[in-house]
Amino acid sequence: MTASHFLVTNMANHVVSRAVPPSLSAKIVGSFAYLTVRDRLPTILTKAVDTIHRNKNKFFEEHGEEGVQAEKRAISLLSKLRNELQTDKPVLALTDDMVDTDMWNQYLQRQHALMEENECPSWFKSPWLYVECYMYRRIQESLRLNPPICDFDVFREAKMQSFFESQQAIIAICTYLQGLNKNIDELSETHLLDQFQKLLQVALWGNKCDLSISAGQDNSQKSSPVDSLESLKPFILVDDSNMVWSILMNNKRPGGAEKLQVDIVLDNAGFELITDLVLADFLVSSGLASKIHFHGKSMPWFVSDTTREDFEWTIKQTLAANHKWMSKSGAQWQRYLKDGTWFYHDHPFWTLPHEFCDMAANAPDLYSTLQKSDLIFFKGDLNYRKLTGDRDWEHTVPFEKALRGFQPAPLCSLRTLKANVQVGLQPGQGENLTASEPNWMTSGKYAVIQYCRPQREQ
Ligand SMILES: [Mg+2]
């Protein structure tokens, strides 16, 4: 490469980076971001207040009068938060002492610098991704500042309920998994691919079960997941599963790398988490992968997102189930965690408001951890929004371009569409959908299996 070529390339990159489209924001009246901030977020706050209030007796039993006082103070902080949101008040600095408090306050400065002169970051003026994440962090702050109840997860009841309401579907998928595992060594490559695609799609559609999009309403899986896959296929807008398969298969064939590590960046607890565990089990028992690293949230997040407590609770519940194949699955998952085949991590970066293209600079330790992976699955909508920066991209922009340099390893997004950002479509595909179904990007009816591998390997 000549010096002048290098300069031109750099200048071109510079031009590209300046041409990044704006963040989605509630400042566009009538947009999905606007409706979310106006309607859905206050509803979630109201439910959080109700949940804390309903647990008053529990707080009294555990902490006496001090618990009741903490409950009152937390509720008053949440009511104040709801009022700030609804009246578009400035975003305030956090005042608690968590490990990420400084990072949040620095990010507020950064958002401030992006505003017009004399304007402050606020709920209806700042990027939607930022203020939505900020709301969940403020819920955490309102508990954190009230020590006896600081570890209370306001969303746990909803997550547990969603798990129990999906029992039949969980039993069905665990039974399917155990049947498959019996003869897994005898499956031909074609059959293995077929099963891989089935379980990948189960994990994809498991992402429909999201309590933040339904503002906490029941959104559980009721029917048997494998049976409905064929009828759901037309709703997968991008299906790169063959490219994902080739990464896994290169390992399995003679001469392939011996230890293939797959990372799964989780989204929701409940049925979706079960589908992720089933996929992980299949990858290990088929020999397609030897290690699985799960990544969850370090605090309650977007109502139904998986925390360490949810992860451990789910496996314990599966193990303790009064059903042979479900219980057997839980026992196997427990063993995988004990013998170091599976790992669970919860880095604070996952609950920061940053786009993932910031990760290398703002969370270099996490970025280098992900670089060790052979394949990273990013589950769900929030991860997709962070992968693409939650920006107003044209639908035909390549996925790789929207990642803006975030390429720690080959990665695959498994996402049902619940926010109006979607890249990597064919020309006309987005327009046709908009013409026939104006809310195709937010209804959760459509999905993508979207893959990108680092440039250096292409
Ligand atoms: Mg979620």
From TrEMBL:
Reactions accelerated catalytically: beta-D-fructose 6-phosphate = dihydroxyacetone + D-glyceraldehyde 3-phosphate; beta-D-fructose 1-phosphate + H2O = D-fructose + phosphate; L-glutamyl-[protein] + S-adenosyl-L-methionine = [protein]-L-glutamate 5-O-methyl ester + S-adenosyl-L-homocysteine
Tree of life domain: Eukaryota
Signal peptide: none
Cofactor section: Mn(2+); Ni(2+)
CC terms in the record's Gene Ontology section: nucleus
Keyword Metal-binding included in the entry's annotation: yes
Assigned EC number: 2.1.1.-, 3.1.3.-
Molecular function (Gene Ontology), one example: phosphatase activity
Keywords (A to Z) from UniProt: Hydrolase, Manganese, Metal-binding, Methyltransferase, Nickel, S-adenosyl-L-methionine, Transferase
Domain Damage-control phosphatase ARMT1-like metal-binding: 36-433
Pfam families for the chain: ARMT1-like_dom (PF01937)
Gene Ontology biological process: DNA damage response; methylation
Its job: Metal-dependent phosphatase that shows phosphatase activity against several substrates, including fructose-1-phosphate and fructose-6-phosphate. Its preference for fructose-1-phosphate, a strong glycating agent that causes DNA damage rather than a canonical yeast metabolite, suggests a damage-control function in hexose phosphate metabolism. Has also been shown to have O-methyltransferase activity that methylates glutamate residues of target proteins to form gamma-glutamyl methyl ester residues. Possibly methylates PCNA, suggesting it is involved in the DNA damage response.
PANTHER family reported in the protein's UniProt record: DAMAGE-CONTROL PHOSPHATASE ARMT1 (PTHR12260:SF6)
Family listed: Belongs to the damage-control phosphatase family. Sugar phosphate phosphatase III subfamily.
Domain-related comment: Subfamily III proteins have a conserved RTxK motif about 40-50 residues from the C-terminus; the threonine may be replaced by serine or cysteine.
Protein name per the record: Sugar phosphate phosphatase
